[in-house]
Fold this sequence. Notes:
The protein has helices spanning 19-52, 77-83, 118-135, 159-171, 181-191, 211-220, 260-284, 297-311, and strands spanning 58-65, 87-93, 98-104, 139-145, 149-156, 197-202, 222-229, 241-245, 252-256, 287-292. The chain is α/β, with parallel strands linked by helices. Strands 5-4-3-6-7-10 form a six-stranded mixed sheet, sandwiched between helices. A two-stranded antiparallel ribbon has the order 1-2. Strands 8-9 form a two-stranded antiparallel ribbon.
Amino acid sequence: MALSENKNSAVKPSQQPTVNSQQTDKQKKLRRIEIKTRKLSNQVFSGSYHSAFKGRGMSFSEVREYQYGDDIRSIDWNVTARAGKPFIKVFEEERELTLMLLIDVSRSTLFGTQTEFKKEIIEIISGILAFSAITNNDKVGVIFFSDKVERFIPAKKGKSHIMRIISEIDGFDSKEPGTSIAEALKYFNNVNKKKSIAFLISDFMTTEDFTKELNVSARKHDFIGIQIYDKRSRMMENVGTVLIKDAESGAEFFADTSNPKLRMQIQKSFDEQQKKTKELFGKSGSQYVSIDTTANYVTALMKMFKEREIKR
Length: 312
């Protein structure tokens, strides 16, 4: 619903926040986000992340004396000959991977009718995944997109790098209308030649067909789609005639929410889009999870990690 401007409530010049105070407020907010995401990552997600995603392969670690039950195929015959007793080669999984976050920063993510905007949930989930990755010595990179690729941050390690990513998400203000997942996937497929773990985090409010691009991503990478949605996108309340503004296009129109056919049409359209997207990810061989802004995203992510661990 559009809100009219109240000129009498304008802030007086002396009351306007200074640049320094705005910076301090942002620093405090980022610090709160850091504490929250690092805590969840350390306490809950790091182990699950490690178990859910494979390394690139096995690398030689050391040799040790043969013990009863060891695989004789691992015996290092050169060392055994020199030592006069059997030694075996010990291998370990190469853990270093690259985590790529494809983050929707389109205008539609600036929507929420409950406690938080979709953008805020996306920010927290991105932080959890990023901190889980660096805890496991993986690199993290980001692609921000709307109807085009807005910004690319190459993959790196380190806390300061993760905080830059979170700060970018928090402060990103896209001026572009629409959402193009296909463009984001094309760019991702071009800049990431080696296999990576990739999370596409979006509200998936798009009518375009990105089947081809998703299939390419799913073949080359360990790919997961996370949808963040607000329940009012599906269930419109009966509040009479309201002015609705499309966050993506800026178009405005009046809608009679007391009309049950209209509410049913909105619900049906949302459900059909949900089903189509889920089937699209399923056919590509990638994973997909849908999370309401009022739902427990920790539980949803843990369930996703658990499902991946079982499939390994």
